[in-house]
Description:
By secondary structure, this protein is α+β, with helices and mostly antiparallel strands.
Amino acid sequence: xxxxxxxxxxxxxxxxxxxxxxxxxxxxxxxxxxxxxxxxxxxxxxxxxxxxxxxxxxxxxxxxxxxxxxxxxxxxxxxxxxxxxxxxxxxx
Length: 92
């Protein structure tokens, strides 16, 4: 999936309480999805990250690729300050 397409997918994903609390890292085959605690705790932030992950899955399917959610120990270990890794998406 091209970088411009991936960024558009993330940008248009809906989110709760008008705050985009998710953050992504990755490359063409793996995307790590991080979140941060919001004013209402982590609940909405995790829901937002899940919605964004669904958009990634749908876009990959549309482009003829397969996306799988997984827990990546490297994503957990390399989480940016103030963030926690919700999950990773493997794009095949």
